[in-house]
Amino acid sequence: MATAGRSSSGSSGESSNPNPDVNPSPVPAIAADSSLSERTEDGAASVEAIAHKIQESLSLNKRHRFWETQPVRQFKDLGNPSLIEGPIDPPTSLSEVKKEPYNLPAPYEWTTCDIDDDATCTEVYKLLTENYVEDDENMFRFNYSKEFLRWALRPPGYFKSWHIGVRVKASKKLVAFITGVPARIRVRRDVVRMAEVNFLCVHKKLRSKRLAPVLIKEVTRRIHLEDIWQAAYTAGVVLPTPLTTCQYWHRSLNPKKLIDVGFSRLGARMTMSRTIRLFKLPSLPTTPGFRRMELRDLRPVTRLLREYLSHFAVAPDFDEMDVEHWLLPRDEVVDSYLVESPETHEITDFCSFYTLPSSVLNNSNYSTLKAAYSYYNVATKTPLVQLMNDALIVAKQKEYDVFNALDVMENESFLKELKFGPGDGMLHYYLYNYRLRNPLKPSQLGLVLL
């Protein structure tokens, strides 16, 4: 799941998954308290420091009652060398998995949301557009398109039963939503069948009904029915216990608009004209052989991506079907570019980004902010800085307002040089029913969740 916020230079930082105990709404606080964003010498967020401070700041009755009952790494386990890596609870027999859905409050009922059905997809879109994650100051809210939702929720082998909604019995109005999609994620040397859990959303008027824990338990039950016992998810709040903590960085492409809507601020001693010049980009990509990915590129791109992702502690285990679904370009959803050597026609480099606009709230001049999010990038012959500069150029050509990137994989190597600014919120990655002995640095993570 994801959240909207702004950066310290004023951009829209993303994250997801609320704490159903402390705040049952899917809108966690995004602006990171400076005391919760300590950095170690190598630049990685100190998960131990964050966990310690969050525990100190919570009163006893607001600690993570729900998550303390779940098979996730607990704060008290930090630094315990006796705990082994791997699944926390062993899989049970499928016959022992609860067959009936969890009970909802009397006025509500479960529904399975068929994203292929246009009316249902429109309902989901409307629920998310009006109630999903927004920043603390209520200036921006995610605006996932219906095409994006269909892409995000229908990967190879997906289960319709994992697209779960809650309706009001009397009116049939959709008031809550949560999803899972299947994935193969490699942790160290083990490829694990997992679910990626996302889009937890409860209608604003029902945030006191404590629907979020029931939604999480129900999607977990349905995942278990498919003999899958692990999951990955992200959150903008600290839960027990982050696999790693990442930061969003933001690169202005349309600085005047970003400043006009309050997404960015005019820097000290900077004029608007100087700011526009500062972020100006060439009109065309500069790398010879840089072009948009096509269907014929599936095999070499898959080979390039698999080799690159093998270097990270946690990363997806993509095959050609996965690459076709997740990375073959779809207009206004996902874009991928590669470098084909003019001499040998070898595919040597690859970059990609997906499209996630935000609604601009309470602004008379603008209604939407068009944002590109860095996805998977592989540089073998072209310097990564040059490759990503070309990605910025094509995003600017396509009229994006801002280009966002997490400091995962090798992204940190290009952020400052390409004039990205750090965000004001943190994105925490979690594994369900799987423990790593120590938290990872963001640079050890090869996984991007939507």
TrEMBL record:
Enumerate composition-biased segments (Low complexity). Answer: 1-20
Start and end residues of each stretch annotated as Disordered = 1-44
Return the similarity comment. Answer: Belongs to the NMT family.
Q: Name one Pfam family in it.
A: NMT
Where does it sit, as one GO cellular component term? cytoplasm
Task: Give the superkingdom in one word.
Answer: Eukaryota
What Enzyme Commission number does this protein have?
Answer: 2.3.1.97
Residue ranges of every copy of the Glycylpeptide N-tetradecanoyltransferase C-terminal domain listed in the record: 260-438
Q: What molecular functions are annotated in GO for this chain?
A: glycylpeptide N-tetradecanoyltransferase activity
Alphabetized UniProt keyword annotations: Acyltransferase, Transferase
In Swiss-Prot or TrEMBL terms, this protein is called: Glycylpeptide N-tetradecanoyltransferase
InterPro entries xrefs: Acyl_CoA_acyltransferase (IPR016181), NMT (IPR000903), NMT_C (IPR022677), NMT_CS (IPR022678), NMT_N (IPR022676)
**Native source organism of the sequence:** Vanilla planifolia (Vanilla)
Occurrences of domain Glycylpeptide N-tetradecanoyltransferase N-terminal (ranges)? 87-246
Known catalysed reaction(s)?
Answer: N-terminal glycyl-[protein] + tetradecanoyl-CoA = N-tetradecanoylglycyl-[protein] + CoA + H(+)
The task this protein performs is described as:
Adds a myristoyl group to the N-terminal glycine residue of certain cellular proteins.
Major enzyme class: transferase
